[in-house]
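User: Fold both of these, please.

Assistant: Here is the first one.
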Amino acid sequence: MACLISNGRTEQCKDSISGIQALYLINFGDYNPDPAPLGDVGYNETQVAITTGGTGYTSGTNVATTGGTGTGFTVNITATLGVITAVTVNNDGSNYVAGDVLTIAGGTGGTITITNYATVGYEDLITSIGGSISNIYKYELKGNNGFTTTMNTSRENGTTFFTQTITAELKRQDPVFHKQFKLLAYGRPHIVVRTNGNQFFLAGLVRGCDATAGSVESGVAYGDFNGYKITFEAMEEKPANFLDCTTEAGLVTLLGSPTLVTS
């Protein structure tokens, strides 16, 4: 079953920091959120290549394998005249590594090589996004800004979804951003969140992020906040996805090299 727990977790070191340092906005519709190859989103998934086609095979699903460093790897195979001609991963098991050679059951001599072994869940780490992303819009942040994903789950209804909430404070008012503030209220961009620990998350992968609250503040006293406060929310079937990058340059590459707009 898809809901069976597959990993434990140890107590972590106290070497992380919290908070977010930047948002990168992508206009809604600039990519197809379906998984590649039908859509534009590529995930960190286990991949295999046929090493030898073998003999005596018939097409089938959930076919067992032997060999390698792990356990539980099964595949779906297509065979023509007893020779394996196509293989897809059914269950990538556990504890395998790239380079493992596995023998496929049900015939003689059919083998595959694991070319990439995903150490995290299929939908949890995005490795590429294609589509027609021409620009991404960077908002630098410092101060009282945050990002939270909240689990909403009901045993009675049999449902689960995740609310992704971004709070941002953008200092100082100006006519140019006044227009953007209105557009943020009207639209629903996809938003990449960069944390102070240089982790990147994509909020609103499928449905985008709606502005649910905001204010333009001039304050009362000289030292009061002056600028824009805005809250974004996205409701998605999964928590906000990790992006497979640790730098801004890596993010641009992952998104297909759009123009980074900073002002």
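And the second sequence with its predicted structure:
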Amino acid sequence: MKYAGMPMGMWALFAGSFQKQLTAVLGYDAATAKQITKSAKPKYKEIIAKLPEFEKADRFQLNIIGCAMLGAFVLCMPKRPDTEALTVYYENAQMTPLMKWFCRRSGKSKFTAKDIASMKATADLKAADRNPYSWNMDFYEYPDGSGYEGRFTKCGICTLMQKLGLYDLTPALCHLDYTMSEAGGVTNFVRQYTLASGGPYCDCGYKKKGYRKTISHLPRSAEQKPHAQQDRKEDQVG
């Protein structure tokens, strides 16, 4: 993947926030945080250079770039953080005012015909069949109209974190799904399984806020049993 373009733009937008949270969350002093950031930039470029280019229709390029940035910072930290601390660090670093605005803007189009069509197109693309750093997902609309689910069977973040030797920290990234859903203002995010924790898939369910009807869940195969409760949340996700 070329650094010029989206990876360069992401660094410009988020590096300052990543540096700030080194002090706010992980307790590094200002000088150490500055040095970590200085070391992380060439490491980030190195990681990006080893990634393949994403297909034009692949919506997950930003996800892998965010993972590359976090991986670069972690690899340059004097002390490896635990998953709990890194979860807070990544959430705070990502949820800048611009990101919160983006989530609110995206929330306005959630569940529209255009949104549904985009999700179906992503499911049909199966980009991870050609790019191990992308995602494969299946798309399901809940029968009662309460929302929908993207069910991921291949995850680019899992692949990259394993490549970087950071696989045990993967849940710190995936927890952001809950935060971004909440920031969007229109959905409750629900999940039962995660690939990073050894599940058969990673389910990303979006329920319409305020929806009261009892959910009739999706039919699933014997190997992929339905959630016990669709509104169940887990603290560690991946």
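DSSP finds nine helices and four strands in the chain.
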